[in-house]
């Protein structure tokens, strides 16, 4: 197969050039290209694209500015893709880290200054054989399933439609989310923040978990009733909480979550800037391979819907 | 297929009964059994086994007491298996936990009491796209490979023979372990402690890692030159160390590893007593299935070799 000619702009990028090559493309100038990978915002984007360019890959998940600037409307014959989903993997890895750290009692071991083996013999748990609920099995939640099964956990997933999530033992529709709570040992919250999901996890739900259960939230703080969570952590009704997002956020100094020994707070940094370029490069490689094979592209923008 | 009749002793165990059933056996009394799962030490073991019993599964990895008591010699026609390898998974999970916690900067986030997002944006890393060296790819090291690849890392494995480890990008024989150091971002030590492996990781090896590299040891403290490690941690020559084992062990109060912010010490508790029964049950299920299918059993004891 002849490599697909792909241009990269506005400036050369060895990381993206490698990704294009990995996806089966070769890097060329814009006037020779069938596709353009654009690694910046709207400023400096070509006023018009050569007729040979059929696809443009943008570098962010949100593309409001591209609609606002009229760039997409000016090129009705071009397929546009965003970076939506490209950054799921690092958030997923963060969720796994928080859950493992909690279940294996890392917070107290990290702060220990003496060899407390007998105590930790009784406190280090395992995800092996545990059942983890994933509340909101979208991009992040779905990517978490193979990581959890790799360590021997089983998964009960909840998504809007109940469409089976690959690798999950059970998938429940959101309307039956209530059934999840009695089946699981731990829960990872990865649902979008909407009016319907506010305080999705409150006192009644936490009350159905056990004293070794960990609650991980990598979605939005508003999904959890913070006061109920603090109470459950204080009482030992649950094992602990690993939170990359909080309500309120930023978490104010002096908030009880800062001092509770069974709460891990990371300051909404599960998707740090430094890890975005390689994640975007992987997304580019995947889409170049799909473009070359004539397959549907990932994260295609719908010009009519505006995202 | 008729279920294989398996006895469990010295007392009933619902966990093991479930494992026998899961493996395709059915639980019966000893006089009816073709196999015996023995969940205790030598004391109380039947003075003689019915001729129908062809296989005995013991409950520990080390079986010195069984040889010492003459039990194995008394039953030359029986196949004996130990629990060797059954407890690898929890040690492997611990190694993954330490590595993820380090790479994602959990120690400093756990001790933080204010929202330091900008700082952690620059410090939270990812295993995705990273290359992890596994020094000693035996049961634990091999089990770690699918966990690492599930989060998007690649693996360079080192084992005695260089026999390719499934899932590793490269496997090197121990004689070429030196080549590993320039290829990897992080290292997990899982090799046995022998005269040859003492201080396998010292100043020269640590010097070939980088300031974001984590060193995880779940094997034995003697494999690492502690003084060289402390120096590398103090200088920031490496990112950090996650140690379930130390030299000396127990780590004495006041040792620098207790206070270095980039060292995580867990007190040799990667395989805590509470997680052993379910791990042993999985081992039993696997071996019952193999026995039923006439396949070679896992962790078969060699009466001549004495282990």
From TrEMBL, chains A, B:
Keywords: NAD, Oxidoreductase. Residues 102-270 form the D-isomer specific 2-hydroxyacid dehydrogenase NAD-binding domain. It comes from the Bacteria. InterPro entries: D-isomer_DH_NAD-bd (IPR006140), NAD(P)-bd_dom_sf (IPR036291). This is D-isomer specific 2-hydroxyacid dehydrogenase family protein. It comes from Rhodococcus gannanensis.
């Amino acid at each position: 197969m002849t490599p697909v000619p792909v241009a990269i702009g506005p400036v050369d990028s060895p990381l993206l050039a490698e990704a294009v090559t990995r996806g089966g493309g070769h890097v060329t100038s814009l006037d020779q290209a069938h596709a353009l990978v654009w690694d910046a915002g709207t400023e400096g984007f070509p006023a018009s694209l050569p007729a040979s360019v059929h696809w443009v890959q943008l570098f962010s998940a949100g593309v409001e500015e591209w609609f606002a600037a009229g760039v997409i409307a000016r090129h009705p014959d071009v397929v546009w893709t965003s970076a939506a989903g490209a950054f799921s993997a690092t958030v997923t890895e963060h969720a796994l880290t928080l859950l493992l750290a909690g279940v294996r009692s890392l917070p107290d071991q990290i702060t220990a200054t003496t060899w407390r083996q007998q105590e930790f013999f009784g406190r280090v748990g395992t995800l092996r054989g545990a059942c983890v609920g994933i509340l909101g099995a979208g991009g992040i939640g779905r990517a978490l399933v193979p990581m959890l099964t790799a360590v021997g956990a089983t998964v009960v997933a909840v998504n809007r439609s109940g469409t089976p999530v690959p690798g999950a033992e059970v998938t429940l529709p959101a309307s039956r989310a209530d059934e999840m709570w009695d089946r699981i040992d731990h829960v990872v919250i990865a649902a979008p923040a909407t009016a319907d999901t506010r305080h999705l996890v409150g006192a009644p739900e936490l009350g159905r978990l056990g004293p070794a259960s960990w609650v991980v939230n990598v979605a939005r703080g508003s999904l959890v009733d913070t006061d109920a969570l603090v109470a459950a952590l204080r009482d030992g009704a649950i094992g602990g909480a690993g939170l990359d997002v909080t309500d309120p956020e930023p978490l104010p100094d002096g908030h009880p979550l800062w001092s509770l020994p069974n709460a891990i707070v990371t300051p909404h940094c599960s998707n740090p800037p430094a890890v975005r370029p390689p994640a975007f490069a992987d997304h580019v490689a995947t889409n170049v391979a799909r473009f070359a094979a004539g397959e549907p592209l990932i994260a295609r923008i719908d010009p009519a819907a505006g995202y």
